[in-house]
Amino acid sequence: xxxxVVYGVMYMGVGLAYTGLVLAxxxxxxxxxxxxxxxxxxxxGNMSAVVVHVLxxxxxxxxxxxxxxxxxxxxxxxxxxxxxxxxxxxxxxxxLPQLLERMxxxxxxxxxxxxxxxxxxxxxLFCAGVDxxxxxxxxxxxxxxxxxxxxxxxxxxxxxxxxxxxLLPRFPFDQLIRPGFYEKHPDVVAAEQVVAAVPSGVVVExxxxxxxxxxxxxxxxxxxxxxxxxxxxxxDTARAAYPWGSLDRQRQRVDELRSQGYRVVYEREGxxxxxxx
Length: 277
Hints:
Blueprint (H helix, E strand, L loop, with lengths): L1 H28 L17 H10 L1 H7 L4 H11 L16 H8 L15 H25 L5 H19 L18 H12 L5 E4 L4 H4 L4 E4 L9 E5 L10 H13 L3 E6 L2 E5 L2
Parallel strand pairs: 1-2, 1-3
Antiparallel strand pairs: 3-5, 4-5
Helix pairs in contact: 2-3, 6-7
């Protein structure tokens, strides 16, 4: 077990070092903003300041990991699917950096389970749960030699399956069994027509939830509150989008683009395709 703990700490160190390399060197090298995902202003403006803050107020930082309540809810949803067995495995250490990254941030969307941020963590914790359950069963067999290892393993697996089924309605996968999920609503039809209105091979600034559909045949930049750099823009004036602060600002930005020489090529259900030669 000591060997696995050492490996876990090594993986954490390598991960943090690689993250630093990406932020400090690779992202700026390709023209990106390395501060875009810095979400720790309440702890400090950079990593050095954060370290100083943690050392000067460790209890305060520790308390922020579990407050507000939504953080505890997310941690419970991550640990409960394995019946807490992951806590008995050193593999859980591999998930620790991402949990710290999320819970110490000042971005509420990182605290909740509504988005994709738990995808990697769940996989790690489930592997840790299998390992932890095996460790607990082996320990129990040493105490009770007559205990069936196979029977105990099957019991744990069945309980995990039951828990997964009870959690299904809490997450978006529940939509897969609802007929309404497969209906094309007007805004979805409009989004498809928006994509078709943008020619192939161009550079386009696209609203966050449309950009992926254009990435196969255009060069896609994120539509955000900055001076435009692309001749084509796909905006949304009906649905709030990342990283805009408000829907009103999105609408205001479309008016500004029109005044800057962009003309409307297509408009429907709040989607607006603009082009400037």
